[in-house]
Design a protein that fits this description.
Helices cover 29% and strands 0% of the residues. The chain is mainly alpha-helical. The longest helix is centred in the first third of the chain and has 34 residues, at 2-35.
């Protein structure tokens, strides 16, 4: 009986923790969309598809697994950002700064990576 209760408590704690992490991430998504500033934000797994993110500055942000499909990233400052596993299909990347960003495939973009990742 005690083992069953302990397992239930552990599952409850994990669910509460995951909910807190997701809520924090959503707050960062709201911040980047409203202020166009969000250095060092956690945007892990966020659905930002189709959004206009032109001229934003999420430098050093964690965009791991983010959905940026058809997003407008015109002149966005994504230098130092983690884009591992992010979906950039159809995204408008002209003028976006990817210098020292961790690219979708896990490689690091070189300096001067404007509009694309130069490896």
């Amino acid at each position: 009986m005690a083992r069953k209760i302990s397992f239930t408590v552990i599952i409850f704690i994990v669910i509460v923790f995951l909910a807190a992490v997701y809520a924090f991430s959503s707050a960062d998504a709201d911040k980047v969309l409203s202020t166009k500033q969000c250095q060092d934000c956690d945007l892990t797994m966020e659905d930002l598809s189709g959004t206009t993110l032109a001229d934003i500055d999420p430098s050093n942000a964690n965009l791991f697994g983010a959905n940026l499909t058809n997003a407008n990233l015109f002149k966005a400052n994504l230098s130092g950002a983690n884009l591992t596993g992010a979906n950039l299909t159809g995204a408008h990347l002209f003028g976006a700064n990817f210098s020292n960003a961790l690219w979708t495939d896990g490689t690091i973009c070189g300096g001067g990576s404007i509009g694309k990742c130069k490896k």
